[in-house]
Design goal:
Elements (H helix, E strand, L loop, with lengths): L6 E3 L4 H11 L3 E4 L5 H6 L7 E4 L9 E4 L2 E5 L4 H6 L1 H6 L1 H6 L6 H6 L2 H7 L5 H9 L2 E6 L2 E6 H4 E3 L2 E2 L6 E8 L5 E8 L9 E10 L2 E10 L6 E2 L1 H7 L6 H12 L12 H25 L2
Parallel strand pairs: 1-3, 2-3
Antiparallel strand pairs: 4-5, 5-10, 6-7, 6-10, 8-9, 11-12, 12-13, 13-14
The chain binds flavin-adenine dinucleotide.
The site of flavin-adenine dinucleotide has 29 residues, from β2, α7, α8 and β10.
Length: about 290
C-alpha cells in the first residue's frame, strides 16, 4: 500500500530534531526504525503532516555502562543491543527479551527507543523497562528530563513524552550479585507478538528473596507490575508452593483483553503459568549468580 503524502525532515543533531518537534508539535512523527510507524502510515492509522527522520543522528546510537547503569541510545538497533556484551553481562533480562522481538529483519531496523516510545503493551521491551524501573531520558526545548518507567507508560501506545520532546536514551540498572532474571512468553509462532509475556527478576540474599520484580506484557493497556505478588515473595525462601501462591496473587485481579488469539480467561491462565515458570528460572539463575 502506498504511503500518504507527508513532508520529510532529516536532522543531523538532537538540537535540530528538537527544534523541528517544537515547530510542528502534534503534526510531526519521529521516524526511527519505521517498523511500527511505516505500517501505521500505510494503513492510514497515523496521519502526521511531517516525518522527522532521526536515522542520521549518530549521537543517538550506542551502548555504554557507568555507575551501575547501562545507557542505550534511542536509535540503537534492537539487534545491536542483542549482540552487545555489555547488555548480556549487565542487563541479562533485556538480553533475554531482545531475541523474542519479531524476526531478525525487524530487529535489524527496529530500535530500542522506537519500541519504548511506541509503547505497545504486548511488546517485550516495555515489560523489561517496567520490571527494572528503567529511566527514560527525553530532550525538549527547555532541556533534558528523566522519566521513571512507572511514569512513562500512560495508556495504549501512549507515553508521557510531550510532543516537543525526543526520547534520546534509556537507562537500565545493572543486575547485581544474587540477581537472577527470566523473560517468558507464549506466542502463536516464533516472531509473533506475545499473547502474554512476563519479565521476572529475583534477588537472593543468602536463602531469602530480598527483591522481586514481575512485569506482564499483553494483559492490559500498559506493561503491568504485579505488586501484590512481589510483596508476597520478599523475605521468603524460594519454593514451588511460594511460586504457586505468587502466581495466584499476580493474576487474581487481572482482567486481560480478549481477541482472536485468546480469551481473557485463557490469558489469565497463561499469565499464572508464566509467573510459576519465570520465578523458577529466575531463582535458579539467582543461585548461580550468588
Ligand atoms: C512483522 C513485525 C513483527 C513485530 N514483532 C514484534 C514483537 O514480537 N515484539 C515487539 O516488541 N515488537 C515487534 N515489532 C515492532 C518492532 O519492535 C518495532 O521495531 C518497534 O515497535 C518500533 O521501533 P522502530 O524503531 O521501528 O520505531 P518506529 O516505527 O520508527 O516508531 C514507532 C513510534 O515511536 C516513535 N518514536 C520512535 N523513536 C522515537 C524517539 N527517539 N523519540 C520519540 N518518539 C519516537 C515514532 O514516532 C512512532 O510513533 C514487530 C514489527 C513488525 C513489522
Amino acid at each position: 500500500m502506498k504511503l500518504p503524502h507527508v513532508d520529510y525532515e532529516a536532522p543531523e543533531t538532537v538540537s535540530e530534531a528538537v527544534d523541528l518537534l517544537a515547530e510542528h508539535l502534534d503534526e510531526a512523527s519521529v521516524l526511527a526504525g519505521g517498523q511500527s510507524l511505516i505500517p501505521l502510515l500505510a494503513l492510514r492509522l497515523a496521519h502526521p503532516a511531517v516525518l522527522i527522520d532521526i536515522n542520521g543522528i549518530d549521537e543517538l546510537s550506542g551502548v555504554s555502562a557507568a555507575d551501575g547503569w547501562v545507557a542505550i541510545g534511542a536509535m540503537t538497533r534492537e539487534y545491536v543491543a542483542e549482540e552487545s556484551q555489555t547488555v548480556a553481562d549487565a542487563v541479562p533480562l533485556l538480553a533475554a527479551a531482545l531475541p523474542l522481538i519479531g524476526h531478525e529483519a525487524i530487529r535489524s531496523r527496529g530500535t530500542v527507543g522506537g519500541s519504548l516510545a511506541h509503547a505497545d503493551p504486548a511488546a517485550e521491551l516495555p515489560a523489561v523497562a517496567r520490571a527494572l524501573d528503567a529511566e527514560f531520558v527525553v530532550r525538549g526545548p527547555l532541556g533534558e528530563r528523566i522519566v521513571p518507567a512507572a511514569e512513562w507508560f500512560e495508556g495504549y501506545l501512549t507515553t508521557s513524552r510531550r510532543p516537543d520532546e525526543l526520547l534520546t536514551e534509556v537507562r537500565f540498572p545493572a543486575a547485581g550479585r544474587g540477581t537472577g532474571t527470566s523473560f517468558q512468553e507464549v506466542a502463536r509462532r516464533h516472531g509473533d507478538f506475545a499473547i502474554v509475556g512476563l519479565a521476572a527478576s529475583l534477588t537472593l540474599s543468602g536463602d531469602l528473596i530480598s527483591d522481586a520484580r514481575l512485569a506482564f506484557a499483553g494483559i492490559s493497556d500498559v506493561p503491568a507490575r504485579a505488586a501484590g505478588a512481589e510483596d508476597l515473595l520478599v523475605g521468603e525462601r524460594p519454593s514451588a508452593e511460594l511460586f504457586d501462591e505468587a502466581a495466584r496473587r499476580a493474576t487474581d485481579d487481572i482482567d486481560p483483553p480478549a481477541d482472536l488469539h485468546g480469551s481473557s480467561d485463557y490469558r489469565k491462565k497463561v499469565a499464572a503459568a508464566l509467573v510459576r515458570r519465570g520465578l523458577r528460572a529466575a531463582a535458579d539463575n539467582a543461585y548461580e549468580r550468588q
